[in-house]
Design brief:
Layout lengths: L5 E7 L3 H15 L4 E5 L7 H7 L6 E5 L3 H14 L4 E5 L11 H14 L2 E7 L13 E8 L2 E9 L7 E5 L22
Parallel strand pairs: 1-5, 1-6, 2-3, 2-4, 4-5
Antiparallel strand pairs: 6-7, 7-8
């Protein structure tokens, strides 16, 4: 998924957005790039899970904010620094609807283009719900699947909406070495 220079929204009703964000984080780290995660101190990413998935915790900046507006402001500062290729803004970590005002979205979109980085906002909502705003360049609804996630692109200013992809995720503990996990033709679980 091409996200550089874009304001992206990954939505889910059941937490699939976290799996998709983890894959983006890993891609950036494998390329030697820095990533920041901005979220709620009461719902942080779980370090042992991140480490088990392959995240280099020493090269992941984690910033906590008490309220979503403070988190958004922190994300803008991180983008402005130009030091991070990916900033994940976990708006789903708070209860209530995710909101980013147009001024913040405008600033975020401009900074992602200027520095060739991406801001990925994680939200908890149904596919029929509106996106965070008109400046979101890519919005995908993420659904959990067995050992992966499906991304249904609802909005894409570069390629148009309507394409779906499947991303693999690690199977649960105990199945890592099982040689006979059946897969379907599209690479997803059978």
């Amino acid at each position: 998924m091409d996200i550089k220079g874009r304001l992206v929204e990954l939505s889910s009703q059941c937490g699939g957005h976290l799996s998709a964000a983890l894959q983006l984080l890993l891609e950036c780290q494998r390329a030697g790039e820095w990533v920041a995660w901005v979220g709620n101190p009461k719902a942080p990413p779980f370090p042992p899970d991140l480490a088990r998935a392959g995240v280099d915790l020493a090269h992941l900046a984690v910033i906590f904010a008490e309220k979503p507006p403070q988190a958004a402001s922190s994300a803008v500062k991180l983008l402005h620094s130009g030091a991070f290729s990916l900033v994940i803004l976990d708006l789903a970590a708070w209860s209530g609807p995710a909101v980013l005002n147009m001024a913040l979205q405008s600033r975020m979109a401009a900074l992602t283009r200027r520095h060739g980085c991406a801001l990925v906002a994680l939200t908890r909502k149904k596919p029929q719900a509106k996106s965070l705003g008109s400046l979101v360049a890519l919005r995908a609804q993420v659904e959990n699947a067995r050992w992966g996630v499906y991304l249904d692109v609802l909005k894409d200013k570069r390629h148009g909406p309507g394409h779906k992809t499947w991303q693999a995720a690690d199977p649960p503990d105990g199945l890592h070495r099982h040689p006979r996990v059946p897969l379907s033709v599209d690479g997803g679980p059978a």
